[in-house]
Specification:
The chain is mostly helical. It folds into two domains: 74 residues, Rna Polymerase Sigma Factor, Chain: A; 91 residues, Winged helix-like DNA-binding domain superfamily/Winged helix DNA-binding domain (Arc Repressor Mutant, subunit A, Orthogonal Bundle), CATH 1.10.10.10. 73% of the residues lie in helices and 0% in strands. It contains eight helices and no strands. It is globular.
Length: 165
């Protein structure tokens, strides 16, 4: 798929996701541009391990985290957790309540220390490679851990009625 086709297909999804993170449409538009510039640079490395939309969301989330670090903006763990997990379903329609965020934190606390630390680093905006380096894991291990923990949490939230299908 060409970058132009990728942009045309996923622009609105990525924009809505960025608005859900930033709560600022103007900033979301700026980050959207940075996301697709990052996509151009990263496209040769894309192996297809993840869904394209998910991959684009991860690039967008990193651009947002870079913006936060650059601007020295600090969010509480609860706010970061909510924003990280808001893509568990449709980011345009999902509003995670404090109860859901509290439950996510409980579920994360129940995970093995290495899994919890990997997901927390991803929540804080660290890339897969940065997380892998810090934890002494392979990048694929970090991806698998992150995916499995998020899926487990999503499945539990669905089962408990805290998240809509």
């Amino acid at each position: 798929m060409t970058v132009k086709k990728l942009y045309e297909t996923y622009r609105q999804d990525v924009f809505r996701y960025l608005v859900s993170l930033t709560k600022d449409p103007a900033l979301a538009e700026d980050l959207l541009s940075e996301t697709f510039l990052g996509t151009i640079r990263s496209l040769p490395k894309f192996r297809g391990d993840a869904d394209l939309r998910t991959w684009l969301f991860s690039i967008a989330r990193r651009k947002w985290a870079d913006h936060l670090r650059k601007e020295k903006i600090v969010f509480s763990e609860e706010e970061l957790t909510e924003r990280y997990f808001c893509e568990l379903s449709d980011p345009e329609n999902t509003l995670l309540h404090k109860e859901t965020v509290r439950r996510i934190r409980e579920l994360l606390d129940a995970e093995p220390a290495r899994s919890k630390e990997a997901v927390l680093m991803r929540i804080e905006g660290y890339s897969v490679s940065e997380t892998a380096r810090k934890l002494g894991l392979s990048e694929s291990s970090v991806r698998v851990i992150d995916h499995r923990v998020r899926k487990k949490i999503r499945d539990t939230l669905l089962k408990e009625g805290l998240l809509d299908e």
